[in-house]
Amino acid sequence: MQLKNNKHYDDKTLKRWIEDDSLTDELNKKADAIRKEIYGDKVYVRGLIEFSNICKNDCYYCGIRKSNDRVERYRLTKEEIISCARLGYQLGYRTFVLQGGEDGHFSDDIVVDIVKSIKEIHDDVAITLSLGERSYESYKRLFEAGADRYLLRQETSDKDHYEKLHPESMSFENRRKALRDLKEIGFQVGGGFMVGSPYQTTESLIKDLRFLEELEPAMIGIGPYMTQHDTPFKDFPNGSFEMTLRLVSILRILFPYALIPATTALGTINPLGRERGLQAGANVLMPNLSPTMVREKYSLYDNKICTGDEAAECRACLELRIKNAGYEIVTDRGDVITYDKETRRYS
Ligand code: 5AD
Ligand code: FES
């Protein structure tokens, strides 16, 4: 089975969908219908554990970039990560997303040990890693240790644009290679990009859609670009909420089977952003399971939501909000629909 839609949408159509604010409702409805046909009203939840905000990279848009000396840095211990997972398990989470900056402390041995330990304690959970770029061999070891999925947004599929968002030390080609490596190894792979990042054009967004059509990821995460006051991009405005909603719908239309989160950035730019994201075709939520003490320090952008309803502990509030939006939270691993548990492969 193919993860993408067999139908080809030409650049002209995509351009109109991306740019025309009057199409938001129509696209949202079309996408919601496609999602309903495949995944029904189900919304999958993932407990997000932001285990380190230490990063060797210096992405110009990111609040935890290496050069930002105003961030208080933290790193959770293995025991702390495991205790987040235990709490999450009690709350009904069956996927844990371990996300962090590119922190050299987390060697293959250390991550392998954490993945194996969580899987030993909870044998029915899926583990998603989001640790940035690593070598093929490293990814392979992590997969063999039991990690199921890997999130690595391509950020942009336009080389010139990539070079405007990142310093010279980072490579457009490496990023794409990493995504292809992950897919080849067998991970359920998640790509994605920001909407409205500085210097982005409609053409670069179309390139993102084309790259994803080629990659056929199981998951696609997008959110609006959000200003962070301590970055070189502090004077650029936030991305557009409406355009992000249209892009969520476009993704659902292009990738009917994909797992698409209504992201934290979407929930930050608008108080009903995540509900609107679900209504636009998204089917995943990733509430924060990190210890409350460190949440504010994972400040990728300004005003990132991280307390109250956002907290994974508030499972009941979340369930109610989602129910009111017309959807139902389910407790299971929530693999992509074409995934085979025996072979750990998806088609
Ligand atoms: N605004 C929105 N999203 C951001 N990310 C990083 N910085 C920002 C920002 N300022 C996104 C990137 C990254 C993901 C973890 O968060 O796309 O891949
Ligand atoms: Fe590394 Fe943002 S620059 S996580």
Strand fraction equals 5-15%
Shape: globular
> Largest sheet at a glance?
6 strands, parallel
DSSP strand tally: 11
Secondary-structure-based class equals alpha/beta
Count of alpha and pi helical runs: 13
What's the mean pLDDT score? 94
Task: Estimate the helix proportion, in percent.
Answer: 25-40%
User: Into how many domains do the coordinates divide?
Assistant: 1
Distinct small-molecule ligands in the complex: 5'-deoxyadenosine, FE2/S2 (inorganic) cluster
End-to-end C-alpha gap:
6 Å
* Low-confidence regions: none
CATH class descriptor name: Alpha Beta
Strand neighbour order, sheet with most strands: 2-3-4-5-6-7
The CATH architecture designation is Alpha-Beta Barrel
Protein name: Iron-only hydrogenase maturation rSAM protein HydE
Organism: Anaerococcus prevotii ACS-065-V-Col13
Cofactor: [2Fe-2S] cluster; [4Fe-4S] cluster
Domain Radical SAM core: 41-263
Explain the overall architecture.
By secondary structure, the chain is an alpha/beta fold. It has a single domain (12-333), classed as Alpha-Beta Barrel (TIM Barrel), CATH 3.20.20.70. It is built from 13 helices and 11 strands. The chain has helices spanning 11-19, 24-39, 78-90, 108-121, 136-144, 159-165, 172-185, 202-215, 241-254, 264-269, 273-279, 292-295, 315-324, and strands spanning 42-45, 47-52, 95-100, 126-130, 149-151, 188-195, 219-224, 284-285, 328-330, 339-340, 345-346. Strand 10 and strand 11 form a beta hairpin. The longest helix is centred in the N-terminal third of the chain and has 16 residues, at 24-39. The mean pLDDT is 94. 5'-deoxyadenosine is lined by residues 61-62, 153, 155, 194, 223, 225-226, 228, 265, 300-301.
